[in-house]
Task: structure prediction
Amino acid sequence: MEFDETMGLKNAQKKDVDLLGSEELRDPSITASKLLGQERAYFYDKFDPPFFILSRYEDVNGALLDAETYVEGFGNGPNFQPAQGILSDAPHHTFTRGLIQRDFLVKQISDLQPRLEEIVQELLDGVASKKIWDLHDELSFPLPVIIICEILGIPTDDIKKFKRWADASVANMCAEDPSEYADELAEMGAYILEQIHLKRKAGKSSDLLSVMALAKEDGEYMSDDELVSFAGQIFVAGNETTTSLISNLVWRLLTIGDLWNEFCRDEIDVDDAINESLRFDPPLLGLFKTTSRDVEVDGVTIPSNTKVMMHYGAANRDPQAFSEPNTFKLKRSGKKMLSFSVGLHVCIGRELAKLEARVTLTALRKRYPKLRLVNEGERVGPFLFWGRSKLPVTHQ
Ligand code: HEM
Result:
């Protein structure tokens, strides 16, 4: 048989994707480049249940905008879950999102800036005399937890407990056997329920958990189960993700060229840095939707009722959408990264996440311009997430 160069090239690019393999876990840009050399709808059978992955920018963007075909109501992880809280479709999604929308408007979020600055200064005071400290444990993890608790109106007295629960929630979302995390999640559910009962007893108030606890849909309060899921979703959605945004960005600034010093000399716009970090290192590499009908993508049929991963990490590196996609470039024009999703379920906390990152980065460069990495730390565990669960630094 004659060797066809095009075929050779095509086959060379067609490398099997292994989302749980150590190489791709360590560097998800490898997954992105493999996916971008594969079929547009890639069948991934190394997970139970198997699923399809969309990776091209136009395909992911188009699917996210088509909420009738790609529905939310079976959860946004690879396993089929019952629709609850904000992880649902219209009309329940319209009701739940509408309830919390007000608290996440640009104005409401910008009013949080002084409080965020105060928390960040306290956290930075806490490490002032330490020779080596962990940027994840001491700064990027506690900040989002404290602010979400304050928005919800729940005490922040035991951050370590919240950490265990948040870890269990994200691990549960990515697990083949979710029953592994049942005890931690039951403990978190019981705690949230206790808080909900306290809110109902106290009566009307402006904190978010009170608003949720006292809201009526078609004249009825939401059930305890429903409220616990909904509040849990708000609590978890903004924590690990914002933590990773902050750690990933500091990590890249400290490791690529002279970026950290340029940033300290105010030669880099903090918002450019945040946007490029979100594109280059999405805290969520992808989330899932479920097909409501058979869909054809470039000759491949995705059957109805199948999980489909929207791979933001690959779409953000699609050369059809971004020039030099594998380079961390601070000035970019053109397409918007997809790390906050788009469409009906676009991240409601995106302004808050960006403000937290802006406040933290600005304070960090002012207080500790000599900041440097001790080593590259560790990757967070669950495969859908991308961040550092350890990032040891020094500023002396
Ligand atoms: C860098 C940080 C963040 C990233 C990368 C991120 C990413 C995302 C993504 C990709 C979605 C789409 C989910 C889907 O299509 O199923 C989403 C939804 C959501 N996010 Fe975020 N998020 C971040 C921060 C936050 C924060 C701070 C909050 C605050 C509570 C938050 C709350 C939510 C909620 C409630 C939803 C569900 C919206 C809906 O389904 O209507 N997120 N987020």
